[in-house]
Every structure is written in structure tokens, then in C-alpha cells.
Design brief:
The chain is an alpha/beta fold. The protein is 29% helix and 30% strand. It has a 5-stranded mixed beta barrel with strand order 5-11-10-6-12, surrounded by 4 helices. The two termini are 15 Å apart.
């Protein structure tokens, strides 16, 4: 992001960050962090009004701040749509000569209990696709055991540390699923296969695949809206989770703008 010129590296004057959410409600929750009426005198307020930017295949909500440009994208539900949308945005930025420094997969999601209670924040130390593979008589085999692809992406360690310190989030594995967990048996099965899992969502791995293909750093953050397990709509706290997401980005934005990608090298 804001880097020192050293060893022949170019200096980047400001961070360019793409935030990918599944749906407009999540995108708008992130956007509210940049226009809070409680911080009208803050130097962290946008330097220019929010803009709507249209690029091939994607529409972006852009906020420009002193230390960075933030493009918000409602990328669609599920890993495939998210990967396609994020890849389109990354490609358009690269062709325009303004590549992104970081992609953040953000939104609400289910939390594994009791480690990730409703209303808490989780940052991915590992982004894992939980149901890409094959069912066999002996159980589930991830796609890597079939000789293909990958099932994990690892955000930079220093980035995870910065995000957790800024927001108070827990760090752990966030699972990406194509089918949301709706039973106790399924939740137990996922925890048995992924004992470090704290949360599940539907887009993180797709976002990470697109970022990896473009050589761009990735981060995933989720605000927990419901327990992973039996589907009980009465127990969902979507409004509270969206509020937590807004508050998280209010703290996260300056931290990510000053993150140095070379801290892990």
C-alpha cells in the first residue's frame, strides 16, 4: 500500500482496495463506514463524494480518501459468481493501469458455536472451500486428493494480524460452502474435517481464487449473523451483523491503507 521506495521497488502513493460483498446490503454496510455522521471532522472522511463507476461486467461504488481508493462491489452470491465478478474488476483495473493492492471479501456469515458468537467478527487466517471434491463410501475427499486444484488460500500473516488488531476480530479458518449448513449433523461434520473453522460464508474462496490468479493479496472478514447449524431464522441477527460490519470497516480502513505488503517477505 503506502510503500517506501527501496531495492528498485516503485512507491505506491495510495492504497487501492477492492471490497467484494455478496449482496448490496453488505456493500452498503461497508459504505456507511466511510460516511459516518459521527466523524464529520475526521481526516479519514472521503476526500470526494461517492462515485458510481461502470467497468466491463461490473459496477463499483468508489470512495476516495487521503490514503486510499476504495471500490465496493456486490459480487453476487456463491463462489463462482464472486470469482467471475472480482476477476472482471481486477482485469479492468489492470488494463486501466490502476491495479488493486488488496481484495477484501467481506460480509455476514454463520459462526461456529461457541467460539464465534452472533455479533462477533472473524478474520480468515485460512480461506477453505469445504465442499469441493467427491463423496465416497469412506467419506468426503477434497479435490486435492483427486489430483486437482487447491482447497486453501492463506492471506498474508501480517495482514491478518493488522486486521485483528484493528477490529478485535478472531482469526481462524473461514469455510466457503455452496450449500449453507442447516443441520447439526452437517455442522459437526464440517467441524470434524476443519477443527479450526470459526465461520462459514459462500464467497470467500471464489474471491481468493480470482485474487490469486491476478497475484493480488486477499483478506476475508465476516460479521457473524447466525449460528452454524439447524436453520432457525428467529435466531438470525442480520441487522446486528451488518452494524458490526460497518463498525469493523471504520476501524479497518486506516489499518489496511497503511499495511505494507512486504512485511511477510
Amino acid at each position: 500500500m503506502v510503500l517506501q521506495a527501496e531495492e528498485g521497488l516503485l512507491t505506491t502513493p495510495s492504497a487501492r482496495i477492492l471490497v467484494a460483498t455478496a449482496v448490496p446490503a453488505e456493500r452498503d454496510a461497508v459504505a456507511r463506514a466511510f460516511s459516518s455522521p459521527d466523524s464529520q471532522d475526521s481526516p479519514d472522511l472521503p476526500d470526494s463524494p461517492v462515485e458510481q463507476i461502470w467497468q466491463p461486467g461490473v459496477g463499483l461504488t468508489r470512495t476516495t480518501r487521503t490514503a486510499g481508493v476504495w471500490d465496493l462491489l456486490d459480487a453476487g452470491v456463491g463462489p463462482a459468481r464472486a470469482a467471475a465478478s472480482v476477476s472482471a474488476a481486477l482485469t479492468a483495473a489492470q488494463l486501466a493501469g490502476t491495479p488493486y493492492d488488496l481484495v477484501v471479501s467481506a460480509g455476514i456469515g454463520g459462526g461456529f458455536q461457541p467460539e464465534a458468537p452472533v455479533g462477533s467478527l472473524v478474520v480468515a487466517r485460512r480461506i477453505t472451500v469445504a465442499d469441493l471434491g467427491a463423496e465416497t463410501a469412506d467419506g468426503f475427499l477434497p479435490v486435492t486428493e483427486l489430483g486437482f486444484g487447491t482447497v486453501h488460500h492463506y492471506p498474508p500473516r501480517s495482514l491478518v494480524r493488522v486486521a485483528c488488531q484493528a477490529t478485535g476480530a478472531q482469526a481462524g479458518t473461514i469455510l466457503t460452502v455452496s450449500t449453507v449448513t442447516g443441520t447439526a449433523a452437517r455442522a459437526a461434520e464440517l467441524r470434524a474435517r476443519h477443527p479450526q473453522a470459526l465461520a462459514e460464508g459462500m464467497e470467500g474462496f471464489g474471491v481468493a481464487e480470482a485474487a490469486d490468479a491476478h497475484g493480488t493479496a486477499v483478506l476475508e472478514i465476516r460479521a457473524v449473523s447466525n449460528p452454524v447449524g439447524p436453520r432457525d431464522r428467529a435466531a438470525w441477527r442480520i441487522g446486528d451483523a451488518l452494524t458490526a460490519l460497518t463498525e469493523a470497516f471504520g476501524k479497518l480502513a486506516p489499518a489496511l491503507e497503511s499495511w505494507n505488503r512486504h512485511d511477510d517477505q
